[in-house]
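Entry 12.
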Amino acid sequence: MAASKAPLRLPKLPRRLGLTRRALAVLSVLVVLALSYANSLRIYLDQQNALAQAQQQIQERTQRIGQLEDELRRWNDPAFVKAQARERLGWLLPGETGYRVIGPDGKPLGTGVVLDSQNELPPGEHAEMWFDRLWGSVETADNPTRKAGR
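Predicted 3D structure (tokens):
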């Protein structure tokens, strides 16, 4: 029975690769570390990309705020408001004479706002109730469209 008590031996790795168990353990630790660092690097790069996009959005919105503040300053100027009323609404001061330039097609030329009453309904169809027509008029007034050549 003494022969059966021989110590257990682990199988030997083939020497073809020249790797020992210790080298294999170090290599596996290095692979695990590389994978964890690669994942951390990917997360870092994603965060940098998100940060750059957020900074770009902040810059664009800051520019837009500046444009809106500039427009607000213009609208606070009475001369600008008067000029806009004259241009958009065709207002004249007392004593002035207004003129309209007629194009070759017989329609007046200009930049005035033109309301399009057929925004939602096809031609020939009308809302049946008066309040439906009234509401359509309100919606059309909220969204005026400019026609070509006007």
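Annotation: The longest helix spans residues 21-75. The beta strands are 101-102, 108-109.
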